[in-house]
């Protein structure tokens, strides 16, 4: 056998002993651990998220993120995977699903945070009204990546047409209600309510609560809570100021504002309502609360870690890097240090014109208080309080008193 033939045989033997890599699959470096991450993003958002993942992977030395978007039936798929032990290492949860922290499916990252001095890992840099969605069950379960405060969008052309001054942060709720009435005519309504924004915001604004801070009571029958609920009930579906239910069903909710059929709409700060072609739209904080602030609801979500991840240390590292990147992508960032016009505009340039008004709403935003039996509580709150109230089936006082009993039956008991 010649020298060259012996060399060729040896090469073939070595190749045969090497592990096979499936066709179309990128081989990871031996010292990199694969971590799976999922969220509910649609096509466009998923492409942007993939770009973030690619940037992290380009610099990470010990892990590789594999992104698995689930735009359809997200929570159903995720629950199935968690039950079957096949769920990704990291995933998104909105605040309504953060109650999973009480079910031992999320990793408590508190000990990691205590040893980490990076900004995204600093609890003190998050707004308390947002941080509460991850500070649960005596632990910390994930990092918030977004906090959309509800703001007031208004059609400047309709205000100009009616000869009325634009809304300001100094408006009271009485002024707001009167403006909604004055802006209503045969062509457009002053305002629109259709269970959004949540009635919680109106109750908070009047000084009431729907769940106490210790999670032991649902004081929706206090005078303050009743005042907030009555404010909502007085406007929703009331044709004197707001679109009726049947009109909303026919024309849509936000779609009515986009079509110039509504003068004022309360939506999330990141919504596209102020960049609709042909609409001249301004933004203001919601009206003043009883303490002179502008308490508003914040739609909030967090990235969390699967409690059964095989690599908790690397999953935590990936969590912090992902959170930092997303907080420079999505608005509004839940971090106090990032509450600047420069940061908001860099994240979303299309919000430049209204950035100042949006940021004015941020300090007063609040997310929900998360309870273990969140789904049951939400169902009772809707079926026994909100929906009957919206349809005038009984007085606020009677509905609140009866619903409180049922709501407190599903709260924690010390």
- Helix tally equals 16
Shape: globular
Secondary structural class: alpha/beta
Q: Major beta sheet, specifics?
A: 8 strands, mixed
Overall mean pLDDT stands at 93
Overall radius of gyration = 25 Å
Poorly predicted runs of 5 or more residues: 1-29
Strand content: 5-15%
Query: What is the helical fraction, as a range of percent?
Result: 25-40%
List the quaternary state of the chains: single chain
- The total count of strands amounts to 10
Q: Report the order of strands and helices.
A: HEHEHEHHEEEHHHHHHEEEHHHEHH
- Alpha-carbon distance between the two ends: 84 Å
What does the secondary structure layout of this molecule look like, with pairings?
Layout: H1 3-17, E1 33-38, H2 43-59, E2 63-67, H3 74-84, E3 90-94, H4 110-114, H5 128-131, E4 135-136, E5 139-140, E6 143-155, H6 156-161, H7 173-182, H8 199-205, H9 223-235, H10 245-251, H11 254-258, E7 264-268, E8 281-284, E9 296-305, H12 312-326, H13 341-347, H14 355-361, E10 365-366, H15 374-390, H16 396-408
Parallel strand pairs: 1-2, 1-3, 9-10
Antiparallel strand pairs: 3-9, 4-5, 6-7, 6-8, 6-9
Helix pairs in contact: 2-12, 8-9, 15-16
Short synopsis of the structure:
By secondary structure, this protein is α/β, with parallel strands linked by helices. The protein has helices spanning 3-17, 43-59, 74-84, 110-114, 128-131, 156-161, 173-182, 199-205, 223-235, 245-251, 254-258, 312-326, 341-347, 355-361, 374-390, 396-408; strands at 33-38, 63-67, 90-94, 135-136, 139-140, 143-155, 264-268, 281-284, 296-305, 365-366. A hairpin with a 2-residue loop joins strand 4 and strand 5 (139-140).
